[in-house]
């Protein structure tokens, strides 16, 4: 359908349903794997630095492919892109489920990532062209409800499967669902698209891959290797130079691969800044809380998943509610309230002890997720609402790419803070504790050393969470500048001489 039909016709709910189910299982598979990493390490006999490539590699593929999705969405039909993405994801899931050596598992994971990288920007773009601005918040809320259900049930389901079955069952469980979704899309999706005469600039693709890939790899590796490792700072420097060159080239191309002019729209630029900062803060809970719960408190993976479940369910349930509130009140009030809750709860997380109760952790995490749910989707939607329709593919691709980069930066920063402060606390505690332990039996000294290490780790986690609360305050300050965005309908004379962007014509069978 074209833009005029979107505002008067019925949205393509059948197509949206197929796309959402596809996105749901790709999200679900990603959250399923996190809890299984220790089992994979033991079974395939790999170290922590190696097994993390299942996550880092996934992020790298996303960072490389997502910027190219703006071009792909303009060039190809929804049907073609969806079937390609689902086929890649399905083959990857099948290969990973059969893996008995780590390289085969990593290859399957990379194929999964290549499918997922296309899926999310494609779905977001269809959502934007299918609903008018005044109804978009509610639509995005329902979209959020479906996608938030994946991280809600993922860790708990994964913990149960890993405790009762082989970790490969995580992939065997998803494979038949992926096949059904692929076949459903093949028969149901019948969208039409007029031929668009645009071509991919290969130099831009190479620069984008090196730029975003280098930044993602560098920041992702900093937590393990340290900032002074050549592989870390060299990849970050090379990535930054390539990214600057990429941005410069896009401004000179008649049809850029990824159009950075989206940042000329103030609400989009502001929303991108807020979500990047919040992403950095949000990763503290996702990364540090499981370490605290399982390493320091000794809670099983299944119980750790149960602890996170109410928070994830709260995000899922709140998504359509915040969508309706956004349509009625705008993003500013929701963002201010949500970020205030996020700042307070993140600060309270920075006061953890070895005696903090399980129920308190669950309640605090649930309230924190409530705050985050009031920010992410409303702020992103408000920013996208200001863009002209021809910028939708670029806006969604840009948001997804920046989420990947900010997540990697946030993870690297918080791990660095935790590690550095852990060493400082270990030295301080050891000086005051072990110096007074002269004459103690060897077994007692070993126990005291273990206690010092655990206490130092706990203090390091608390310090990192405190830094995370400071980062969230930055997002809160930015939220006061949010205004309700209205779509900027550019006059035709402002368009370049490039071929006109033709919106996909979507039709349900």
TrEMBL record:
Pfam family, one: MFS_1
Stretch list, region Disordered: 487-509
Residues that span the membrane, as ranges: 12-33, 53-73, 85-107, 113-133, 140-161, 167-188, 200-219, 231-247, 268-292, 304-321, 333-352, 464-482
Keyword check for Transmembrane: yes
Domain of life: Bacteria
Chief localisation class: membrane
Cellular compartments annotated: Cell membrane
Domain annotation Major facilitator superfamily (MFS) profile: ranges: 15-487
Protein name (record): Multidrug export protein EmrB
Classification via InterPro entries: EmrB-like, MFS, MFS_dom, MFS_trans_sf
Membrane topology: Multi-pass membrane protein
GO CC terms, sorted: plasma membrane
Transmembrane is among the record's keywords: yes
Keywords carried by this UniProt record: Cell membrane, Membrane, Transmembrane, Transmembrane helix, Transport
Family: Belongs to the major facilitator superfamily. EmrB family.
A GO term for molecular function: transmembrane transporter activity
